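Review form for a predicted model. The reviewer records the input and the model, then writes brief findings.
Reviewer: anonymous (R2)
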Amino acid sequence: MRIDTLQPGEVFVFGSNGHGAHGGGAARTAYDRFGAIWGQSEGLQGQSYGIDTMSGLAVFEEQARRFVAFAADHPELRFLVTEVGCGIAGYTPDEVAGFFRGASENVVLPERFIAVLAEPGS
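Model under review:
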């Protein structure tokens, strides 16, 4: 699902890098269209939310967990998660979907993440 527009209250969740240099992929879309701030790698930025996927898997997992908590604390918002980490960062859904386990109902995960989370034993 490609996200080109957002409704009020929707937030585009994208993978960033540690420098907040939103030069390509979903990060560029977040910067060009949804208020991502150049130089800010993590957190709410306009109608977008960045997660650093380029500084190693441990950093990615920690920031994804913080995002899940943030989303739970903001039920008035609807978070549209891209395939965070599966583009330029080079991870697979099997490697990262579990980082979003337990996300609240206001978090819309990509189909491939949902499929991984639905697998027995995942």
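Findings: The chain has one domain: 10-118.
Further findings: The two ends are 23 Å apart (CA to CA).
Recommendation: see findings above.
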